[in-house]
């Protein structure tokens, strides 16, 4: 498995920049681990990128829960939120990974979705996030 640890310093922001270059209506994007750790970002400052990663993790988790309850499995292909003047897209990007894209309100969802899927398909093994190791006794903060 070519999984990337959430703490590993691997710069994947160039992939997100390429996506924004392909689809100019993209305002910003974040690649995150499914538990909300930002792995790479483009088009936003660090605070906004981390905020988007946390929001995306929560929304994606809720979609997985809805799928498990009402669809018989927790696989999520895409979550789309249409805001007043923006669109937010969340897509599964590999093992424990999610791609979040914030686009303008005028964005064509078919184009954004297609380009996100194309990017993920092209580099999917490198987008995986390794599972976190279980906590050990030395990780106990209450000692």
Automatic annotation (TrEMBL):
InterPro entries, per database record: Mycobact_SerProt_Inhib_Rv3364c, Roadblock/LAMTOR2_dom
Highest taxon of source: Bacteria
Every Roadblock/LAMTOR2 domain range: 13-103
UniProt name for this protein: Dynein regulation protein LC7
Species of provenance: Actinoallomurus iriomotensis
Biological classification of the source: Bacteria, Bacillati, Actinomycetota, Actinomycetes, Streptosporangiales
